[in-house]
């Protein structure tokens, strides 16, 4: 019935729902980033490595806060309503390494989710915004891989 409409109403509604869920995902991440920064295994790394890892995580955190604002704005522009995320309790990872693994997996899962959002968006303006967020997530996954490699190899300059 809606084959000739792009996006069809079901795709659009799915994108709206996923944007709302992304607002929650991005918001709850701020506590996670603070935990990662506070738990960098400095005893196993050189000062240079620790400083670099901290700067990388802070940069990712800042990107994620920006993504959150973009998703909130997009949700409001498309629906005329404000996205109201549910509060979720933060459960810290058992270790920094496991936190980095969780972060890498989260970034890659976000890429899949954002591709699905793009499929139902009504204009190239919104699709481009989500594509930019999606490309940041791929970059973040690579940065987490860099961190994982550094903490796995230990103290090397």
TrEMBL record:
This is Rubrerythrin. Residues 19-145 form the Rubrerythrin diiron-binding domain. CDD domains: Ferritin_like (cd00657). InterPro entries: Ferritin-like, Ferritin-like_SF, Rr_diiron-bd_dom. It holds the Pfam family Rubrerythrin.
């Amino acid at each position: 019935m809606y084959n000739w409409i792009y996006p069809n109403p079901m795709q659009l509604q799915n994108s709206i729902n996923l944007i709302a869920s992304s607002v929650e995902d991005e918001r709850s991440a701020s506590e996670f980033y603070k935990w990662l920064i506070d738990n960098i295994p400095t005893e196993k790394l050189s000062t240079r490595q620790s400083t670099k890892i901290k700067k990388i995580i802070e940069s990712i955190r800042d990107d994620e806060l920006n993504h959150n604002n973009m998703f909130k704005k997009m949700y409001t522009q498309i629906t005329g309503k404000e996205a109201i995320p549910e509060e979720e309790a933060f459960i810290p990872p058992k270790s920094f390494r496991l936190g980095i693994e969780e972060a890498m997996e989260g970034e890659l899962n976000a890429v899949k989710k954002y591709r699905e959002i793009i499929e139902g968006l009504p204009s190239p303006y919104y699709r481009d915004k989500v594509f930019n967020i999606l490309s940041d997530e791929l970059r973040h996954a690579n940065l987490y891989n860099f961190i994982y490699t550094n903490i796995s190899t230990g103290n090397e300059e």
